[in-house]
Design goal:
By secondary structure, the protein is mainly α. The protein is 68% helix and 0% strand. It is globular.
Amino acid sequence: MAYVHLALIVLISYLVGSFPTSIVVGKVFYKKDIRNYGSGNAGGTNAVRVFGLPTGIAVILVDILKGILPVLCIANIPNLSRMQQPLLSQELTAIIAGSSAVIGHIWTVFASFRGGKGVATAAGMLMVLYPIGFLLTLPAFVIAVAISGIVSVGSLTVAFVFPAILWTLTFTEILQTAPSLLYFSILIGLLIIFTHRKNIIRLIHGEEKPLFKKTIKNLFSFIVVLAGSPL
């Protein structure tokens, strides 16, 4: 029963993460398949590019929520067999639930396994799992995007900065982090790098198109975006 319970958590989390927000919004409100426009990616950044900032923000917020719900709610689904001990610790179960949602967002079963790049859903997951690490990483993302104007630069920055922050806090004994979360931080960073492999190639060749102007003045705009309020 413990294995069935864990499998149920993984399945529900994956299905929640698989909800193709930008694809649904595009087809319902704009009669467009977002995968045929802009970068071709079904994520929040391309939603901003194709549908505009207000709609893009809405998509990003829903994608963030897809990472929050599995960790906060689905991971806590009670085991019907009260006589059995949980198969894994609550923290590890939450990590697995959140990771399943991220995988669902990237490889959604509802859209031929063509989803987004997992950043927004991973952000929602990390908000709940490790809020301090998330808050310390957020400025790196904002500054990287504000200066470069390229969202993928911010995402790749997070892939390196988030694990670095967690490991630094732990080894300097400023704040202890569970080993499972430490190793997970590396895996989620590698996953972000993997989903951005085409962006990396474009960045190397100078072909990655900025979403915003290359100026620190866009810092305020990004704070507004992250707060979920349209300009």
